[in-house]
Specification:
Blueprint (H helix, E strand, L loop, with lengths): L1 E2 L6 E2 L3 H10 L8 H9 L8 E4 L6 E4 L9 E2 L1 H4 L19 H11 L2 E2 L3 E2 L7 E2 L1 E2 L5 E4 L2 E4 L2 E10 L5 E4 L8 E4 L2 E4 L8 E7 L8 E4 L7 E2 L2 E2 L2 H8 L7 H16 L3 E2 L3 E2 L2 E9 L2 E19 L2 E10 L2 E15 L2 E11 L2 E4 L8 E4 L9 E4 L2 E2 L2 H17 L21 H4 L4 H6 L35 E2 L6 E2 L3 H10 L8 H11 L6 E4 L6 E4 L9 E2 L1 H8 L1
Parallel strand pairs: 5-6, 7-9, 8-10, 10-12, 11-12, 12-13, 13-14, 15-16, 16-17, 20-35, 21-22, 22-23, 23-24, 24-25, 25-26, 26-27, 27-28, 28-29
Antiparallel strand pairs: 1-2, 3-4, 18-19, 29-30, 31-32, 33-34
């Protein structure tokens, strides 16, 4: 066991972990897995966007960086253009100074990409998103069209307020669902349509308030009805009313309290631990990951092989360690990197793409190779200087760790770290993170009464400034969003997007595993439900017996 230098808790270095560290020639980590993931996530701002000017063309655009940062920020077209060269910012390594201090100088000199998108159309209000069209406030999405307020919505059409949705259409307020159609207020469902308030249902249609059912029609609270009686039951619920929706949510939560939960969602996988793991083998402490072969300490990864401590990585990649949005899209041997894809043999890089043999670089985009601190070397010089730096970093106890917190350009409450590891200002500062104070201009009082029922909401609501009932931040209803609510008889949301997103995140269990007994057969299980929680939690065998 080792003692985490950050949280002071003990953590394990497994024999398999040590084999991996030896393979990629890095020392054992000094942070525990959770502190490592939190540190990586504190470098990624997804949802906090600011209006600013491009420091190259002066065009106004939405950016993840505010004005007047210590580094230049370019719009998408300028950053990817040939009008500047990252090598022009190169600097020689000084063995008398900390490598990270020299790296920070490079980070502050090279232009930063203001918004991380690619091949998007009419989707200015999006970040970490590609191949998407006509979208608004979506983040971490791929091939989304006409989607709004989403996170990790992939290959989907007209989905609103959804989290981790794949191959779906016309879904609203859904979490971890795939191949669904007109599904509302549901979680962990597949191939379901024309339904609402479902949990862990597969192949169902025209169902309400049900859990764990398979290939069913016309069910309400898991009770089978005829089509005619189902329609009568459905009429009892006024989903178009905000007050009616609150009643429906409460009834569904009461129903779920008595329904057994499966210990973990692990599908078609072998020798894995974690939650929401699909089609994988030999995965330790993985969460929300798919098609993984030999991995550990992973979050939201896909098509990844031989990797550890990776967050939002893959599609595909191999030999990946301590990276966030790095080791992506045909990458190989990526270590300690941020937002870098299609690379081979790179370390301590940020925003580098389509390159190889880089160490401590920023903004390499044009098939660069043999560069250190953005300075060009020959192959032999590169190997010599790189080894010198690693030796110096080992002596200073720097090598083997992700970027230090002072290199993050974001405040903790701007980043996805706060979604997973929520902290108040005092705790964040005490842990060494920075904090952004709220802007009073974003908290104007609401002078408009939202009608209870969507049928009574005028189109003019799109001109009103609303205030979140939870955090009081202002938000607006856009025209496309209003049409969606009107089409599917859904009430106007009373919370801002940030609070709605956090509410969906909170529906997922903690990123932790506990030992407890199956509530039915008393066998020992590992689960994301802590022993103190009151839910009935079943092992996989008992759970499958319950639903089939």
């Amino acid at each position: 066991m080792k003692l985490c230098v950050k949280c002071k808790n003990n953590f394990e270095i497994r024999p398999q972990d040590q084999i991996f560290y030896d393979k990629i020639k890095v020392p054992e980590p000094t942070f525990c897995p959770e502190c490592r993931n939190q540190r990586r996530m504190s470098f990624r701002n997804e949802r906090h966007l600011y209006q600013r000017k491009c420091d190259f063309c002066s065009k106004s655009f939405l950016s993840i960086y505010e004005e007047n940062r210590e580094f230049p920020v370019y719009c998408y077209n300028c950053w990817w253009s040939d009008t500047w060269d990252a090598l022009s910012f190169g600097q020689a390594y000084d063995s008398g100074r900390s490598f990270f201090k020299q790296l920070k100088k490079v980070f502050n000199n090279v232009p930063h990409l203001g918004i991380v998108t690619a091949y998007c159309e009419n989707s200015d209000y999006a970040n970490y998103t590609n191949y998407s069209k006509n979208c608004y406030l979506i983040f971490g999405c791929h091939a989304a069209e006409d989607c709004y307020y989403g996170w990790r919505v992939h290959d989907s059409l007209s989905c609103v307020d959804c989290l981790q949705i794949d191959k779906s259409k016309y879904c609203y307020d859904c979490v971890d669902c795939d191949e669904c159609y007109e599904l509302f207020y549901s979680q962990d469902c597949s191939r379901c349509n024309n339904s609402a308030f479902l949990y862990d249902c597969k192949g169902c249609q025209n169902c309400l308030f049900s859990a764990g059912i398979r290939n069913k029609q016309y069910c309400v609270f898991n009770k089978q009805y005829t089509k005619e009686l189902y329609e009568k039951e459905k009429q009892k619920f006024n989903f178009g009313s905000h007050e009616g929706l609150l009643v429906a949510r409460e009834k569904f939560q009461e129903f779920l309290k008595n329904y057994p939960k499966r210990a973990t969602f692990i599908i078609n996988s072998e020798n894995v631990s974690g939650d929401h793991i699909i089609n994988s083998k030999n995965v330790h402490f993985g969460f929300n990951s798919k098609n993984i072969h030999d991995g550990a300490y992973l979050e939201s990864c896909e098509d990844l092989k031989d990797a550890m401590d990776s967050t939002f990585s893959g599609w595909p990649a191999e030999l990946n360690y301590e990276g966030i949005s790095a080791g992506c899209v045909n990458s190989y041997n990526t270590k300690f990197c941020d937002t870098s894809w299609s690379n081979t043999n790179i370390e301590y890089c940020n925003s580098c793409h389509h390159s190889q043999e880089l160490f401590g670089c920023f903004g390499m985009r044009r098939k660069n190779e043999y560069c250190i601190l953005n300075k060009q070397y020959s192959a032999s010089e590169y190997a010599e200087v790189k080894q010198k730096i690693i030796n110096d970093m080992i002596f200073r106890k720097e090598y083997g760790e992700f970027f230090p917190l002072e290199l993050s350009p974001f405040a903790y409450n701007e980043t996805v770290a706060n979604d997973y590891y929520s902290l108040c200002k005092e705790n964040a500062l005490a842990k060494g993170f920075s904090w952004k104070e709220r802007n009073p201009k974003e908290y104007l009082p609401q002078n408009y009464d939202i009608p209870d029922h969507i049928q009574d909401v005028p189109d003019a609501i799109t001109k009103e400034v609303l205030a979140c009932e939870q955090c009081h931040r202002n938000y607006k209803i856009v025209t496309q969003e209003l049409k969606f609510y009107q089409k599917f008889n859904l009430p106007i949301p009373r919370y801002c997007f940030h609070c709605r997103h956090q509410s969906r995140m909170n529906k997922r269990n903690p990123r932790q595993l506990w030992q407890r007994e199956c509530s039915k057969c008393q066998t020992s299980i590992k689960t994301t439900y802590s022993p103190e929680r009151s839910e009935k939690v079943y092992c996989e065998k008992c759970y499958l017996q319950e639903i089939y």
